[in-house]
Design a protein that fits this description.
Organism: Campylobacter devanensis
Helix content: 40-55%
CATH architecture of the largest domain: 3-Layer(aba) Sandwich
Pfam families: Glyco_transf_4, Glycos_transf_1
InterPro entries: Glyco_trans_1, Glyco_trans_4-like_N
Strand order of the largest sheet: 3-2-1-4-5-6-7
CATH superfamily of the largest domain: Glycogen Phosphorylase B
Structural class: alpha/beta
GO molecular function, one term: glycosyltransferase activity
Number of domains: 2
Protein name: Glycosyltransferase, family 1
């Protein structure tokens, strides 16, 4: 009999790194002989990533409308309860129904839940694995409480002591994200293109606005007028990004592109990957860039880049918000094709050894067995 895994997330239809991780993980579990259901609290548009046909996808809006007496009671409750409370009850009911129907061996939570779902979790501690996709400081800033989770997976060991101190009754495990396939292709280092990709959220988590400032410093030097910066993504911040590019007279050297499923073409069109994020968990873009043998550069923020980039071997880690240093190190890469090739080869080696599907899925299989034996 196959083991069953239930994945949970806010909205799998967004085109970001976490959404891609969940898709890759679900497909790999199917390939490993598991049954998988993905429960997306919302599904605001068509999912941009291709799930295996055997992955069952459920979401709140999919729930069938009640009939007969149940419909009458449903309408009475809806009318007499505050909308917020009613929506919470509806979420919990649909989620509970999905759990009862699927009867999973494990529930893997990739999101942080509102209080409408925590009551269900408290009764299922041994089945639940919480995956933390961001830093401890981010969770503190967002006031997210992890006390209900017995088993918590972190993507790196940077914050493990902070998490253990705050949540002494939880078990913590380190398992990174993976990419499903490491490309056999390497980029062409003669291409004079720097690439950056990500969701353009209002918070500017990905740091595109400060990346534009860095590019301005580089262009003002007058040495790299034949280079282009490609920024790929969509979101609420895109118009502000576009306006800033125009105001700084960078429209000729910065190319804005929409979100695309064909990320391979983007990686293979560049010879450097630049990330300017303010905070991350474990950034998939750096791992993916490494699989195409791209050298990478990023700010040395609390978590993420330092787990992937080896300083001066596969790329550069820059003191956070030091735009001048970032620009200088990026210029070093831009003016030296042989250095790009050397660092790119090291990037690919790191990805193969730490972030391949085979390495990471083995860690998940071992965790399932460990939790099952300790239950």
């Amino acid at each position: 009999m196959k083991n069953k895994i239930l994945m949970i997330y806010d909205d799998i239809s967004y085109g970001g790194g976490a959404e891609r991780v969940i898709c890759n993980f679900s497909n790999s579990l199917i390939a490993s002989g598991y049954e998988v259901m993905v429960f997306s609290i919302a599904l605001s548009k068509q999912c941009p990533y291709e799930y295996h046909q055997e992955v069952v996808i459920r979401f709140i809006k999919e729930n069938a409308k009640p009939k007969g007496l149940a419909k009458i009671l449903h309408e009475i409750k809806r009318l007499i309860m505050p909308i917020k409370k009613w929506n919470a009850i509806k979420k919990r009911a649909v989620f509970k129904q999905a759990i009862n129907e699927f009867n999973p061996d494990f529930i893997i939570c990739h999101t942080h839940f509102d209080n409408s779902l925590t009551k269900i979790f408290k009764k299922m501690q041994d089945k639940i694995i919480k995956v933390v996709h961001n830093s401890f400081d981010a969770y503190e800033k967002w006031q997210i409480d992890l006390n209900i989770y017995k088993n918590i997976v972190l993507l790196s060991n940077h914050d493990i002591n902070k998490f253990k101190t705050k949540y002494p009754n939880s078990n913590f495990y380190i398992i990174p994200n993976f990419i499903p396939n490491i490309s056999n292709l390497n980029t062409n280092y003669s291409q004079k293109v720097v690439l950056s990709m990500g969701r353009m959220a209002n918070t500017d988590q990905k740091g595109f606005l400060r990346l534009i400032d860095i590019w301005k410093l580089i262009q003002d030097s007058g040495e790299f007028n034949d280079w282009k910066l490609h920024i790929v993504g969509d979101g609420d911040l895109k118009e502000q990004i576009k306006t800033k590019i125009e105001n700084l007279n960078l429209s000729n050297s910065i190319i804005l592109k929409p979100f695309t499923k064909d990320v391979e073409s983007e990686y293979l069109s560049a010879s450097i990957y630049a990330m300017a994020s303010h905070f991350e968990g474990l950034p998939m873009v750096l791992i993916e860039a490494g699989s195409y043998a791209l050298p990478t550069i990023a700010f040395d923020i609390a978590t993420g880049p330092s787990d992937i980039i080896e300083e001066e071997k596969s790329g550069y880690l820059i003191e956070d918000n030091n735009l001048d240093e970032y620009a200088n190190k990026l210029k070093i890469l831009m003016q030296d094709e042989s250095l790009r090739a050397k660092m790119g080869a090291k990037s690919k080696e790191i990805v193969k050894n730490k972030f391949s599907k085979e390495v990471v899925m083995k860690q998940w299989m071992e965790l399932f067995e460990r939790i099952k034996n300790n239950a």
